[in-house]
Structures are given as C-alpha cells and as structure tokens.
C-alpha cells in the first residue's frame, strides 16, 4: 500500500535532467509539487534548509540536486563532499524535522567496476573516484538520519529537451550530422537509462513507501560504443562508430570500467523489472524528435 498522507512533494535540482521528469510525473499523480532549483535551494546554505522545508511542509523530498562533474570532483574533493554528502545530511535532518521522507539520487559509479554482471543492491560499494566517494557518503548521511528514507542509484541517464545542455543523445546526433568519423570507448560498460523511466520508477517506489537502497536503471548492458552506435543509427541507419579504449579520452577521475545496475528488490514491492535500454532509447527518440519525420 502507498503512503496515505503523500500529497506534497519537493524536488531539488528541479530543472535538471531527472529532476524535471520527477516534477512532471509527480504533478501527473495529482500531488502538489514544489520545484526547487538552485535559486530556491542553495546547497551551500545549510542553515537555510530547516526554514525552507518548514515553509513548504512536504510529505517527501526527492533530492536530485548534486555536483555531477566527475572530473571537477576529483580535483576538488572537499567541494564534492560538501555538496554531495554534507548538504545531503543537512537536508535529510531538516526533512526529518518536518516529517518528510527523503529520496536521495545515488550513482551507479560507486562500485570498483570489476564485475561483469550488473551490480545489485547487495554488492559492496568500493568507490574509485572522489565523486563516487562523495555520493556514497551522501547515501550514508541520508539513511543514518532516517532508515525509512530511500536511496535510488540510477544508471547512465539520457533524455530531456533537445535544447538541454546535458542532452547526450542530441550531442551525439549533432556529432554524427557533421559526417566526421565517430569513436567511442569499447571498454566502459553501463546501463543507459531514460530519465523518464527512472523518474517513473522513483515515483512508484515513493508511492509504496520503499526504503533503503534500490537500483533504478533500464535493463541490459551496453558499452559506450554500443550506446553511441544505437543513438546515431536511430538517426542514420548503418552509421558506424569505431570502438577505442578509454585512454583515447583522458580524464582526471579514474572512473570504473563497469557500472551496469540491476535490482534484486523490486519484487519486495510488487514492481516488475524496468524496460530494456534499447526500447527506452527508441521511445525517447520517437517522443523528442517526432518533428524530424514531418
């Protein structure tokens, strides 16, 4: 059964890829939604959190806001920890004071990448990067404040408006349109995930009052090369993307080679597996680019 008192939800990072989808889907549930962008909630101003949440008085807070620049976090670990861990703890404490459940958006990158089958909730996180370490500490902050809170680790997110700055699909479409040779890493693996499917699953977990850690990712595993190839062939059938090793793309952060996720917990709440990532990509492109076929 869902939580009977769930009527008002606050969403942080409300203009982001996942946050904006959560705002829309919560609204469709008939809940009152308070969208908190960085203008309404400064993650550095911990002292403001209690007053903000007291004024809103939400039943739940979906905390999507974070520092997601992995290489920046590697260079500035204190900043990463402040925004992704300390701010999460402060927000969770403020939410607890007003009786609100927190849904914290975690990362698929908190494992060491040595597995070759999807990571489950029971697998032990071993972060390799400062970003992943800060996100893992954020999980601990959230669940220490209230074991009834929920951590949703999400896969490689795609989607959003085609004008959105972090739209990975649109960036690859534009790259392919140049006609230049395309290359992508064939030694990095994960679970491409449509932000709308992730938001739908997060909202459903909130409805059944799920708690603890849950993995939220479209089904299946893809290399970066598989992923990029599937994107560009949606627009240009037959277009090839050459596979290269990840040393072709130098980074500050030692990101894990394998980040694919699957959930062993959905059955607890009577929720089935998420759709395959290729199906999700097709549905997203059909929705976002329908004008290209006109």
Task: Write a compact overview of the structure shown.
The chain has 294 residues and is α/β, with parallel strands linked by helices. The chain has 9 helices and 12 strands.
Give an overview of the whole structure.
- By secondary structure, the chain is α/β, with parallel strands linked by helices.
- Helices cover 37% and strands 16% of the residues.
- It has a domain at 8-165 and 192-220 and 262-276: Rossmann fold, CATH 3.40.50.720.
- The protein has a six-stranded parallel β-sheet with strand order 2-1-3-4-5-10, with helices on both faces.
- Helix 5 (130-145) links the parallel strand 4 (101-107) and strand 5.
Keywords:
six-stranded parallel sheet, Rossmann fold, alpha/beta, 294 residues, single chain, 9 helices, two-stranded parallel sheet, globular
């Amino acid at each position: 059964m869902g939580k009977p008192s769930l009527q008002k939800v606050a969403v942080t990072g409300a203009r982001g890829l996942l946050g904006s989808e959560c705002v829309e889907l919560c609204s469709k549930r008939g809940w009152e939604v308070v969208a908190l962008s960085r203008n309404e909630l400064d993650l550095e101003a911990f002292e403001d959190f209690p007053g903000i949440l007291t004024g809103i008085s939400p039943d739940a807070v979906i905390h999507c806001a974070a520092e997601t620049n992995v290489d920046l976090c590697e260079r500035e670990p204190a900043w990463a920890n402040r925004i992704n861990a300390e701010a999460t703890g402060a927000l969770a404490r403020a939410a607890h004071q007003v009786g609100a459940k927190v849904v914290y958006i975690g990362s698929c990158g908190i494992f060491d990448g040595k597995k070759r089958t999807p990571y489950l909730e029971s697998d032990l996180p071993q972060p390799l990067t400062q970003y992943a370490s800060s996100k893992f500490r954020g999980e601990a902050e959230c669940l220490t404040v209230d074991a009834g809170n929920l951590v949703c680790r999400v896969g490689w997110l795609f989607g959003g408006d085609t004008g959105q700055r972090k739209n990975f699909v649109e960036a690859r479409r534009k790259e392919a349109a140049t006609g230049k040779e395309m290359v992508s890493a064939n030694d990095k693996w994960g679970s491409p995930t449509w932000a709308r499917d992730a938001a739908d699953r997060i909202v459903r977990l909130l409805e059944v009052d799920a708690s603890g850690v849950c993995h939220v990712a479209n089904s299946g595993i893809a290399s970066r090369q598989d992923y990029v190839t599937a994107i560009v062939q949606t627009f240009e059938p037959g277009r090839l993307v050459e596979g290269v090793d990840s040393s072709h793309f130098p980074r500050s952060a030692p990101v894990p080679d394998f980040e694919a996720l699957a959930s062993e917990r959905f059955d607890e709440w009577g929720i089935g597996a998420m759709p395959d990532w290729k199906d999700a990509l097709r549905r997203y492109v059909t929705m976002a680019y329908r004008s290209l076929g006109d």
